[in-house]
Design a protein that fits this description.
By secondary structure, the chain is of the alpha/beta class. It is 37% helix and 20% strand. The protein has 19 helices and 21 strands. It has helices at 15-24, 33-41, 49-53, 68-75, 80-89, 104-107, 114-118, 124-134, 148-154, 160-188, 228-231, 242-255, 280-290, 308-314, 329-335, 386-399, 425-436, 452-459, 474-484, and strands at 3-9, 27-31, 46-48, 96-100, 140-142, 201-206, 218-222, 233-236, 262-267, 270-276, 299-302, 321-324, 342-345, 354-359, 362-367, 377-378, 407-410, 415-419, 441-444, 464-467, 487-490. It has a six-stranded mixed beta sheet, with helices on both faces. Strands 16-21-20-19-17-18 form a six-stranded mixed beta sheet, sandwiched between helices. Strand 20 (464-467), helix 19 and strand 21 form a beta-alpha-beta unit. The radius of gyration is 30 Å and the shape is elongated.
Length: 498
């Protein structure tokens, strides 16, 4: 007895291959509009949907498969009751469905008017897919051309596991398709936190492992977000690891805080050296000098072109990744001599607006920390030298990206001491001050609950402190600063990063 397959595809790649295999295995092909025309042009006999439904396509093709004679054939089960129903209504079982959808996601990049874009929201296609996937034990559903070889292999023996695999992929696909549309509509109405959030995530590549070798990991790409990892170019080295992704993300966000030429070194998701320089080489050397131990095996980022001279200097130590918007050709050749060194050319500035963090049972979503300060208010006696204010702003930009509790000690726009991730602020201050030795300014990501940090800073000859303010004991810190001759500025904005 002949079986029946329904093929309806906007993207017609490989469908003639699939159709021929089906025909050779005693399937008759049911199809729609342009798909039917395409198959006929390739010598494949087709039954058009309107011949079955006895109803023409209407509304410019918006309605063609939404009919009981189609969905009854897809949704019928292998039971006597369903068989009798089909026989009574003259409906033939549809055993196989292949559908791909109007390319809404691709059309988003064509700057179409909303009225035009809406026409690429597929209705009948997702309905066919979901119907077949629901009835997966009786109707084979295919949505991914990459699975055509699997279909060919199993054509006469679709086991339960294969059917379930194809159905799961089908539901994943329609969920993704709808999430792209819903996310786009939420953007139109500026709805960052909708009641029901569906993220349009597509698997870009599997990673070797997660944070540790025993953990599996995958990188999923957000269809509607721009950003570094959407279109970066890897010029050399091994594939990126899970930890590389996170460290690169951190380093790239740090250097993009600055208009000046800056270099940032990151180790284990924490800046370990950040510095501004007159040129590429000076910025790198100063960042290296901040912490020549931690930078080993780390990630180095620049917000400007990497020169051959700088490449020669970086080649002296082991680095995992170097990222920059541009590289001199000679610099690439020098760095490629280290075959495992990952060289990343960044093409997009950070543009992510929301951050997602998993917790057991769900995810937390927040706006990205994009602001730096509300205002700069001098709270101690006397004026503050301009060079100290510039250095404080530099340090505050860096402390924004260090883990709380975070303290950054700087001298000449060089983060010479970074204390981060400590359970109390004085420990972070001691770490940063002791590492810096000759720091001039100190930045804190949050206010001082006590005056202990100010007094510790005084012992290291710190000249100025920048902090958010807001403690009920701010006066204690202000008085200690005046007593020690330290200038202090409040920003009225904290930067916790957990």
């Amino acid at each position: 007895m002949m079986k029946r397959a329904l093929i309806s595809a906007y993207n017609k790649d490989h469908i003639e291959k699939l159709a021929k295999v089906l025909v050779n295995n005693e399937y008759e092909i049911l199809s729609t509009g342009n798909t039917a025309k395409y198959l006929e042009e390739h010598g494949i006999k087709v039954i058009k949907v309107e011949e079955i439904t006895e109803f023409p396509e209407i509304l410019d093709g918006r309605v063609k498969t939404l009919h009981p004679k189609i969905h009854g054939g897809i949704l019928s089960r292998n039971t006597e009751k369903d068989k009798k129903t089909l026989e009574k209504l003259n409906i033939k079982k549809i055993d196989f469905v292949y559908v791909n959808l109007y390319p809404f996601e691709e059309k988003l990049n064509e700057n179409l008017e909303l009225k035009e874009l809406i026409e690429f929201i597929d209705i009948g296609g997702p309905t066919l897919i979901r119907a077949a996937a629901k009835n997966f034990e009786n109707t084979i559903i295919l949505v991914d051309p990459d699975d055509i070889d699997l279909i060919i292999e199993k054509i006469n023996n679709f086991d339960f596991e294969t059917k379930l695999y194809l159905a799961a992929k089908a539901f994943n696909f329609t969920a993704y398709y709808d999430s792209v549309i819903s996310s786009y509509f939420n953007k139109l109405i500026n709805k960052e936190f909708p009641e029901y959030m569906a993220l349009p995530l597509k698997k870009r590549n599997e990673l070797r492992y997660g944070e540790n070798p025993h953990q599996k990991a995958v990188y999923y790409e957000n269809a509607l977000e721009k950003g570094l990892f959407k279109d970066f170019e890897q010029l050399n080295g091994k594939e990126l690891s899970y930890n590389n992704f996170k460290d690169i993300d951190m380093a790239w966000k740090v250097v993009n805080e600055f208009d000046e030429k800056v270099c940032c070194a990151v180790k284990h998701q924490t800046p370990c050296g950040v510095a501004v320089g007159r040129d590429n080489l000076e910025a790198y050397k100063k960042a290296y000098e901040c912490d020549p131990i931690s930078i080993f095996g780390g990630i180095v980022a620049f917000n400007h072109k990497v020169t051959a001279e700088t490449a020669k200097e970086m080649k002296k130590i082991f680095l995992e990744v170097i990222i920059a918007p541009e590289f001199e050709e000679e610099a690439i050749e020098i760095l490629r001599k280290k075959k495992n060194l990952r060289i990343i050319k960044a093409k997009t500035n950070p543009s992510q607006k929301l951050e997602y963090s998993s917790v057991d049972g769900g995810i937390l979503v927040q706006e990205r920390d994009l602001k730096l300060f509300e205002s700069l208010k001098i709270v101690t006696n006397g004026p503050v030298a301009e060079y100290l204010i510039e250095d404080m702003i530099f340090a505050f930009k860096v402390v924004k990206h260090a883990k709380s509790n975070a303290i950054v000690v700087s001298n000449g726009k060089m983060a010479k001491g970074i204390g981060s991730g400590q359970p109390n602020r004085i420990w972070a201050a001691i770490d940063a001050l002791d590492r810096a030795k000759d720091g001039v300014v100190l930045a804190s990501d949050a206010f001082f609950p006590f005056d202990d940090v100010v007094r510790k800073a005084g012992k290291y000859n710190i000249k100025a402190i920048i902090q958010p303010g807001g403690s009920i004991r701010d006066e204690d810190s202000i008085n200690a600063a005046n007593e020690l001759g330290i200038s202090m500025i409040f920003t009225n904005m904290r930067h916790f990063k957990h």
